[in-house]
Amino acid sequence: MTDERAPALPTELEEAIRAMLDPAPGGYVTGRVLGLGWATVDTERSANEFRMGIAGSGPFEPGPDVESIGARCAVGRPLRSSATQGTVRIVLVEPITEGRLAATLARRGEGPAAVWIAVEDPRPDLVVSRVSTGPFGPERLVIGGPLGGPHLLIVSGTASTIER
């Protein structure tokens, strides 16, 4: 359900979500999109750019590290999305290890790098990482996509909301 009071996600970010989900690494995964991960080398600068460029997207609050891609994160406010027919949050992700996110930045530069999806019942043949903590609760990285991203993280559908 879309919160009509939330600001709209810009078209280029809507297109990034669609591109990351079609097809998702490891096959098609369906569920509610929770967040769009934006790779950056400077979280504070990126937060300021988003706040100035998308009214209502901030403030960005620190979230738990995204261990599976080697990142620290900051989570923005909900934005209305036509791609998801609901709301999504921009999650700024900055590398803290020489892991997947660092590889993404090296290959693609700053920009869309990950998407979080609430999945009620993941396919049994889906290859995923061990459970780790993330900005939307316990999550698993879908294995099989390119090391340089985009990265798909699935969150248990029942524990997939954050309240701010």
Structure description:
The protein is of the alpha+beta class and 164 residues long. It has helices at residues 11-21, 43-53, 100-108, and strands spanning 32-39, 61-66, 71-81, 86-95, 111-119, 132-134, 137-141, 151-156. β6 and β7 form a beta hairpin. The model is unreliable at 158-164 (pLDDT under 50). The chain has one domain (11-21, 32-159): Roll (2,3-Dihydroxybiphenyl 1,2-Dioxygenase, domain 1), CATH 3.10.180. It has an 8-stranded mixed sheet with strand order 2-3-4-1-5-8-7-6. The protein has 3 helices and 8 strands.
CATH class reads Alpha Beta
Give the total of beta strands: 8
Structural class, judged by helices and strands?
alpha+beta
Physical arrangement of strands within the biggest beta sheet? 2-3-4-1-5-8-7-6
Strand content: 35-45%
Through-space gap between termini: 17 Å
In a nutshell, what does this entry contain?
This protein is an alpha+beta fold. The chain has one domain: 2,3-Dihydroxybiphenyl 1,2-Dioxygenase, domain 1 (Roll), CATH 3.10.180. 19% of the residues lie in helices and 35% in strands.
What are the defining features of this structure?
164 residues, alpha+beta, 2,3-Dihydroxybiphenyl 1,2-Dioxygenase, domain 1, eight-stranded mixed sheet, 8 strands, 19% helix, 35% strand, disordered C terminus
Secondary-structure map:
Blueprint: H1 11-21, E1 32-39, H2 43-53, E2 61-66, E3 71-81, E4 86-95, H3 100-108, E5 111-119, E6 132-134, E7 137-141, E8 151-156
Parallel strand pairs: 1-4, 5-8
Antiparallel strand pairs: 1-5, 2-3, 3-4, 6-7, 7-8
